[in-house]
Specification:
The chain is elongated and about 90 Å long. It contains five helices and eight strands; from the N terminus they run αβββαβαββαβαβ. A hairpin with a 4-residue loop joins β2 and β3. It is α/β, with parallel strands linked by helices.
Length: about 200
């Protein structure tokens, strides 16, 4: 007479369950390996300030051919100088990119700030226009409740430091639906201190 499964010894049932569980884990592991990987990480774990040099890679940003200036390279230089000064003041700082050849879309930049659990996120850019006259500092925020107050502080600091002895104007604050600003969970701004297209500022 054939035994029913329930009549088999307990050890056989447990062994069969173990084999099925291992098989399921192998299949699940294989499926997970097919999922896309972001490759994002915090470049400086625990950094309190995330500086984001805009553009990079195939995206040069604004270019002033007459002066031989490229936004992608200038904002990286500004970020490095800012990092050095902040670290001298005792703040830990991370950069979303550390060379001109690396580039990210905007949203991953905010995600990197989240991975670092940064206290603030600042995206650095230089403005540009088709005519040479525009010349003002501007700060953008993404979500009013977390960004607007920080944006006001940043704009006031930019204007007070850059305006004396120049014709630099103050264009104030403006909302910008930028992926980095919207994704970053901490106070986040995008600053454009000067116009690369303005000959004097260049």
């Amino acid at each position: 007479m054939m035994r029913r499964l329930s009549d088999r010894p307990r050890s056989v049932v447990l062994a069969l369950a173990g084999i099925l569980a291992i098989g399921a884990l192998v299949v699940l592991g294989g499926l997970l390996s097919l999922l896309p990987r972001t490759g994002l990480h915090c470049p400086h774990p625990g950094a309190r300030v995330m500086l984001d040099p805009g553009h990079g890679g195939d995206d040069p940003g604004a270019i002033n051919d007459a002066a031989g200036l490229v936004e992608r390279e200038l904002v990286l230089d500004i970020a490095r100088r800012t990092q050095a000064r902040l670290e001298q003041a005792g703040y830990s700082v991370a950069l979303t990119r550390s060379d001109p050849t690396t580039g990210y879309a905007n949203t991953p930049r905010g995600q990197m700030a989240n991975l670092c659990q940064a206290a603030v996120y600042v995206s650095l850019h230089l403005n540009s226009f088709g005519e040479p006259e525009p010349n003002y500092a501007k700060t953008f925020w993404g979500r009013e409740e977390k960004d607007a107050a920080f944006g006001a502080v940043m704009q006031a600091a930019l204007v007070s430091r850059l305006q004396p002895g120049t014709d630099l104007g103050d264009s104030g604050l403006e909302v910008l639906e930028n992926g980095g600003l919207l994704t970053a969970r901490m106070p986040a701004v995008l600053v454009e201190p000067v116009f690369l297209s303005n000959p004097e500022e260049a």
